[in-house]
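Re: duplicated header lines in exported structure tokens

Our pipeline writes sequence and tokens for each protein into one text file. With two proteins the header for the second block appears twice in some exports. Here is an export where it did not happen, for reference. First protein block:
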Amino acid sequence: NEKRDEYGSPRLQQLIINSHQLNAQEIVERIIDDVSTFQGAAPPHDDMTMLVMKRVS
């Protein structure tokens, strides 16, 4: 972000924990929204690839 802070694994883990009731697509959207908010106006420093899987039973 503009402060050069790192998004970090702990933040991502907490977001996933708080999103457990959502389906996989909604989790992806929530992560993208949170990363975009965190990033602010700063340009991305790298690519982003994401795979979300949910156990159904």
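Second protein block, exported in the same file:
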Amino acid sequence: MLDACVVPGVTHGTYVRPEPKRYLDPHEREILFREGGMNAVYAAESGAADEAGDADASWAWLAMGELPADVLLFWKRRRGAAFIRKWGFSTRHADAVYGPGWLDME
């Protein structure tokens, strides 16, 4: 069962952020998990939250995933570094591609 292997809240750095409101039913989450892992669940929850008009939950779910470096660079250009930090996006992949400190560079 998916919920048995998912600890509520997500660790980002040194703090644990509470899990955003769920919009998918458990069966759908289980199918998504089997098909694409937790990133698929996060993306689907983000989309469902967006459809429900819950922008905060949508961004929070998206930030829980491991996004590719080019996607984070897009969001940096579109919304700024503060936006990425505010939502707690993992920059691990972007740090590896663009180098440490990329988020603060022009």
